[in-house]
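Dear all,

This email documents one entry for the complex benchmark we are building for the journal club exercise. For each entry we list the sequence lines for every component of the assembly. Then comes the predicted three-dimensional structure of the complex as a token string, followed by one or two observations. Please use this as the template for your own entries, and keep the labels exactly as they appear.
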Amino acid sequence: MSNLSNTSDEILASARNLIMSGGYNGFSYADISEVVGIRKASIHHHFPSKVDLVRELVKRYREDGQANVAALEQNVPNALDILKVYANHWTKCIEDASRPYCVCALLASELPSLPPEVATEVTNFFRFISSWLTTVMERGSKNGALNLTSEPHVEAEAFLATVYGAMLSARAYGKPEVFSTILAPALNRLTPNVSH
Amino acid sequence: MSNLSNTSDEILASARNLIMSGGYNGFSYADISEVVGIRKASIHHHFPSKVDLVRELVKRYREDGQANVAALEQNVPNALDILKVYANHWTKCIEDASRPYCVCALLASELPSLPPEVATEVTNFFRFISSWLTTVMERGSKNGALNLTSEPHVEAEAFLATVYGAMLSARAYGKPEVFSTILAPALNRLTPNVSH
DNA sequence: GTCTGTCTACCTTCTAGTAGGCAGATCGTC
DNA sequence: GACGATCTGCCTACTAGAAGGTAGACAGAC
């Protein structure tokens, strides 16, 4: 039935969780086999090599992100609100410990030692997020929904860096609330001044 | 002679470089032995276990940081200048590829899967940087060298997150110049307005 | 004579990956 | 509808190499 492809989804999901906590070299097929409940060799049936597995995982992670972003753009017209929803997504993930870190953030920090196929996919993810945030900044700047002090693409990079830096700090201190402490003033700064 | 302790320094230095590119699980004693030119077993003489090695490495990394910060505070009176020197330190490291990433940033992102002794040491490093930056922000706010829009400790966390987020972005895109592109407006925002 | 740093040789466990078998579903063909 | 053929997903059993770590010997310095 449809649970044929379910197993490979389970494999990807457990790999995502494992990478999220320890990176590319921090998990093995044996770890996945324990979580999913099948033998190591069966994982090789779905993903012949570890590179195949992680490449596919990152590719889907980006595609899911692209789908979510498309839905967000349709449902939320205001640029500032979009940034708030994006920040809030991570606030929740970090605070309820469901997905307390971005898989691509961890892989990006390991980038120089990653297999090239995986590295390329990770870079693609960051390029996608960056160019999306740039279009949000441009739009918000033009229609007055955002108050920018630098060029849109610079603001986009700065915002992205703040999000990912805050994510790291929350993990480093073991204090989830640090994330929103850092994001709040960043979003404030982008809010148009009502007295104007 | 004095090259007795030199070997253990070489071990620590090569471990630092290896961790900087691939994290805790991204290097082995065999890797170090190749770089330093001694056998695996000889490394165990200096650092009985991998945990000992990395714990010591992070401890010294923090101590070196504390010494550098102390010297910086003595030589540079102005708080804004201190932040600029700090940012500039990383700009150089990233651009000349000498130390293009912070060892503790990489270890912090792997924190949940790290041996507890190492994890503690990494958290200590971030606590040190954070509390140092807070004192800089406080001082600069009081004597007018800095223009803060939030509480000093919030500005400190925000600045730290920007630095580490920018470091990640530079690595993710493979573009060192991204770091200073992000840091420039962050420092601008902290610069007191001359027209006041 | 002991202490330090290195060596060779070895051990155990884990790693990704392979070979080959087996049960069940799906298939075209008679 | 019965027949074998193929495909899918999983299994056991295995491999070669790398992992962290140990035992014990040896050379030179103090």
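Observations: The mean pLDDT of chain B is 95. The domain at 54-190 of chain B is CATH 1.10.357.10 (Tetracycline Repressor; domain 2).
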